[in-house]
Amino acid sequence: xxxxxxxxxxxxxxxxxxxxxxxDPGNTxxxxxxxxxxxxxxxxxxxxxxxxxxxxxxxxxxxxxxRFTISQDNAKKTxxxxxxxxxxxxxxxxxxxxxxxxxxxxxxxxxxxxxxSSLYNIWGQGTQVTVSS
Length: 133
Known about the structure:
mainly beta, four-stranded antiparallel beta sheet
């Protein structure tokens, strides 16, 4: 089964930054929906951010707007999530997911479907982000 390759999590103090990376080695499309959701044990899954690769339109959860930035490097088949001004409530397991071939519909389309496991059917292994106060 295909899997995305995530890296970049860690433990930081509040106010510090981290960068998450997500490589899709099997991707052959230009226009994909790719992004992150986060989930802690016993908690509901929460959308974080998506990017419609190719065009580059993005969409974010209100809780991270202005602090997190998602970006792409299509040549490297990699999407990045820059996490700035981290807060203890950002502590979670972050999962990168993708749905290939549908990103031409834009970031809003991608975001609205981010919690659908049937649509976003290629996942990363998850990376832990821990923020202490």
